[in-house]
Design goal:
Helix content: 40-55%
Distance between the termini: 69 Å
Length: about 280
């Protein structure tokens, strides 16, 4: 039975991907941060699922989990590593707490490298496994007020490209999947996000407007199983694309990618009221 490690498997894309891969007959090791999540997933997903308890920023815990997987593989090659765990820190960059920015990069970027260093040796074999990085459409287009998240995903795109070229020496491929809005519990967290600290700034009204619009779109986004199926395809296709974009708004995404940056700036300004206040 082929085995895959998925980080951030407790909810959303990670959980949906685990379900898709299990349905295809794969064994899944899924990382969670809490024992109660491990128990819930073990009960719900069956014997082919094994929980791994770690935070991706905890280097020692990640390497301990990799040792656990190595022992379970008993000499077999790991079929895939799906780096999915991540968070989203909102807010205007001018007023963002530096500790929040550091946390964003620590989880979404440094944590991904920690997992690669821990699990990649298990992918090396006669039939090498693959690495799938879950990025975002925000990895190539940065909307206002999600600068920390965009910075982490832009960074992940660069890290993944370098990694793909470096891993050629082992025959290990690296594929980036960049989803648009996906209907997951992250939007409930976004709804609960406290933007009160920015109430006295020039960004208060545009930020509130963006929050409302983004949450509404997100809750109508793609099913996370769509991303799970894309992950399965990336792990099994003979010649997978190095980067796959999956979005419920392909026309908007395409337009923002092609428009001159100044034109896109004006669209954001018009939509959110990002204009200089005149005396």
């Amino acid at each position: 039975m082929k085995s895959v490690v998925i980080t951030g498997a407790s909810t959303g894309i990670g959980l949906a991907t685990a379900r898709v891969l299990l349905a295809q007959g794969l064994r899944v090791f899924g990382s969670v941060r809490r024992q109660e999540d491990a128990a819930r997933l073990s009960a719900g997903l069956g014997a082919a699922f094994t929980p791994l308890i770690f935070d991706v920023t905890d280097e020692a815990a990640v390497h301990a989990a990799a040792d656990e997987v190595r022992k379970s593989l008993a000499g077999e090659t790991l079929f895939g590593l799906v780096n999915n765990a991540g968070i989203a820190v909102p807010g205007p960059l001018l007023h963002l707490r530096i500790e929040d920015f550091r946390r964003q990069l620590d989880v979404n970027l440094t944590g991904q490298l920690i997992c690669v260093q821990a699990f990649a040796p298990l992918l090396d074999g006669d039939d090498p496994g693959r690495i799938v990085m879950i990025s975002s459409v925000g990895g190539r287009n940065a909307a206002p007020f999600v600068g920390p998240y965009a910075a982490s995903k832009f960074g992940l795109e660069g890290l993944s490209e370098s990694l793909r070229r470096e891993m050629m020496v082992f025959g290990i491929d690296v594929i980036v999947i960049a989803p648009g809005s996906v209907a997951t519990p992250i939007w409930d967290k976004a709804d609960a996000a406290d933007i009160a600290p920015f109430a006295g700034t020039a960004y208060a009204a545009p930020l509130a407007k963006l929050k409302t619009e983004v949450i509404a779109r997100g809750r109508k986004g793609l099913s996370p199983e769509v991303i799970g199926r894309a992950v399965f395809g990336s792990l099994t296709a003979a010649h997978p694309s190095p980067r796959i974009t999956i979005t419920p708004e392909p026309v908007t995404h395409f337009a923002l990618r092609l428009l001159p940056k100044r034109w896109a700036d004006r669209l954001y300004a018009r939509a959110l009221g990002l204009r200089r206040a005149r005396p």
